[in-house]
Amino acid sequence: MAKCNRGVVLREFTMTATAKFSEKPSRRHSSRGRTPSGKPNPVDVHVGARVRLRRTLLGMSQEKLGEALGLTFQQVQKYERGANRVGASRLFDLSRVLDVPVSFFFDDMSEEVEALSPRLISGLAEEPSGFEADPMTKRETLELVRAYYRITDPQVRKRVLDLAKALGAASSEG
Hints:
60% of the residues lie in helices and 0% in strands.
């Protein structure tokens, strides 16, 4: 009887071990820094938007920024969308190439976004509400600012500013 039991146990062990080793290892996907739905963390999206803002204000293409950092333009795109997280050394390089302090990338961050830092996100019970796009990150805004600063006459520039304010006030009244 003892021999029979040992044979059964040995056969079960062999089958279990074989099954375990023949399984393909499952690829782990890191959810670190992402929302429960898998979307990029809003902090990373904000940092990426600030990279895009500065790059655009300098009139620099994604390709040029990528060359300066030793990256492809696709990698720059992923940083700007927040799809890839920006590490400390890359953030330092970005600050040098874009000629801004590291703190620039975190300026104007809303309290809602700050509350969604990666260390806090794992404790979220529900999906965060949608975020409104920051008007400072829109291409239209950047083009307007660039055109405004191309006006060399300070008096004309002031009149354009006054005009824009008046138009804004008129549209918010009606």
